[in-house]
């Protein structure tokens, strides 16, 4: 594991948190209240601040020694919840899904080097992310990456019940490298990958995987 850092996406939340603390401080200063009111308020704010910093933590990319040009890295921290045929009937592909708990880091990384050929946003519902139907019904962002071998890996970043924001860091036509930042999802969510069927997964259902550190498998 590499050193833990705080992601830049935390800035707006820290600003909002600071504004709330300043307003509350002014109210407690001007109006007489029992001593335990401000104590309870500031205790709650400290707890919220610590959770916010914890949620926005991330690690620098750390590609494993066994990673090769024919390997796919895990794009996210989480647990493998699906290894099955793609939900898209027109695709001859394997669907590999990773569910991110609220306590997992939510920075999504590029699983392989290549060229971004598709970035498509789909508005939708906000079902719980572990619901299989969320892959087709929820708000989501599809990203297609063309590998050097000509195969296209499609990643779908799916918003969950509480996740209301998916922020991409890539654009169509961009050349990307494995381990680079792809985007950020807030709160519980999942990442679905549609991978051409010549891919041989080396992970199992319910296995814990780590962004840029775990190899999902290789192309034969």
Please, could you describe this protein's structure?
By secondary structure, the chain is of the alpha+beta class. It folds into 2 domains: 55 residues; 156 residues, Glucose Permease (Domain IIA), CATH 2.70.70.10. Helices cover 20% and strands 37% of the residues. It has an 8-stranded antiparallel β-sheet with strand order 11-7-8-9-13-5-4-15. Strands 3-16-14 form a 3-stranded antiparallel β-sheet, with no helix packed on it. Strand 4 and strand 5 form a beta hairpin. Helix 1 packs antiparallel against helix 2.
Question: What descriptors fit this protein?
Answer:
about 220 residues, alpha+beta, Glucose Permease (Domain IIA), 2 domains, eight-stranded antiparallel sheet, three-stranded antiparallel sheet, elongated
In total, the number of domains comes to: 2
Mean pLDDT: 86
Q: Summarize the helix and strand pattern as letters.
A: EHHEEEEEEHEEEEEEEEE
Largest sheet: 8 strands, antiparallel
* CATH class category of the largest domain: Mainly Beta
Shape: elongated
What portion of residues is helical?
A: 10-25%
**Tally of DSSP helical segments:** 3
Low-confidence stretches: none
The CATH architecture name of the largest domain reads Distorted Sandwich
Do you know the CATH topology of the largest domain?
Answer: Glucose Permease (Domain IIA)
- Tell me the β content: 35-45%
Protein structure class: alpha+beta
Radius of gyration, in angstroms, nearest whole number: 20 Å
CATH homologous superfamily classification of the largest domain: Glucose Permease (Domain IIA)
- Span between termini: 28 Å
Spatial order of the strands forming the largest sheet: 11-7-8-9-13-5-4-15
Number of β-strand runs:
16
């Amino acid at each position: 594991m590499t050193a833990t850092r705080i992601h830049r996406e935390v800035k707006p939340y820290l600003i909002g948190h600071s504004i709330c603390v300043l307003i509350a401080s002014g109210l407690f200063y001007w109006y007489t209240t029992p001593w335990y009111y401000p104590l309870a308020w500031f205790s709650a704010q400290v707890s919220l601040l610590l959770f916010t910093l914890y949620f926005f933590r991330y690690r620098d990319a750390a590609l494993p020694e066994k990673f090769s040009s024919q390997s796919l890295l895990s794009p996210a921290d989480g647990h493998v919840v699906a290894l099955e045929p793609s939900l898209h009937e027109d695709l001859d592909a394997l669907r590999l899904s990773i569910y991110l708990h609220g306590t997992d880091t939510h920075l999504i990384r590029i699983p392989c080097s290549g060229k971004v050929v598709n970035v498509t946003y789909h508005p939708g519902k906000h079902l719980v992310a572990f619901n299989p139907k969320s892959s087709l019904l929820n708000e989501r962002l599809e990203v297609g990456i063309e590998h050097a071998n000509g195969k296209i890996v499609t990643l779908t970043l799916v918003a969950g019940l509480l996740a209301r924001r998916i922020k991409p860091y890539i654009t169509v036509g961009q050349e990307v490298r494995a381990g680079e930042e792809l985007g950020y999802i807030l709160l519980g969510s999942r990442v679905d990958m549609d991978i051409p069927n010549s891919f041989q997964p080396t992970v199992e259902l319910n296995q814990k995987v780590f962004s840029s550190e775990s190899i999902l498998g290789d192309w034969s």
